[in-house]
Amino acid sequence: MYLKFRSITPHAFEKKILLSNGYFSKQLRNQGSVGSDILIKIHARYADLDILWVLTGEGQMIHELALEQQHTMQVDEFTMKYETENRKLKTLESNVENLHTVLKDKEKIISLYEFMLNNNNNRSVTIGDLV
């Protein structure tokens, strides 16, 4: 039940508690017993799993404190991601503002060049007319 709850494969479970390949799967298939040394390994590697529940099947499978800690970790992770993305967004907004300013400056420069070009063309005509 725990493996399904945590979406853990038997192979990954065996690897994490340092069992040989297929040991746990074989125990499950044959409904074999698990020794205390294995239970100690399980308890050490999966602290959220209530070992009393593993032994007796009574009580809660997951410690309430572990669930609260997991929820807190998820909230903290979400908050951190939100803050990071928010900083990125503010940086992008600032970059867009800077680009708008640069674009306006370039438009002013282009207008100035156009004005100067038109004035030079008008002067040529005026000088040509006088000659």
Describe the protein in words.
- The protein has two domains: 1-62, 434 Repressor (Amino-terminal Domain); 64-131.
- It has helices at 2-6, 10-16, 23-30, 36-45, 51-56, 64-130.
- The chain is mainly alpha-helical and 131 residues long.
- The radius of gyration is 36 Å and the shape is rod-shaped.
- The protein is 79% helix and 0% strand.
- The model has no long low-confidence stretch (mean pLDDT 84).
Task: Show the helix and strand layout.
Layout: H1 2-6, H2 10-16, H3 23-30, H4 36-45, H5 51-56, H6 64-130
What structural class results from the helix and strand content? mainly alpha
Number of strands: 0
Span between N and C termini? Answer: 103 Å
State the share of residues found in helices, binned by percent: over 70%
Strand percentage lies at under 5%
Order of helices and strands: HHHHHH
Instruction: Provide the domain count.
Output: 2
Main sheet? Answer: none
Low-pLDDT regions: none
Question: Could you tell me the radius of gyration in angstroms?
Answer: 36 Å
Number of helices: 6
Q: What's the average pLDDT? A: 84
Net shape: rod-shaped
Give structural attributes.
single chain; 131 residues; mainly alpha; 434 Repressor (Amino-terminal Domain); 2 domains
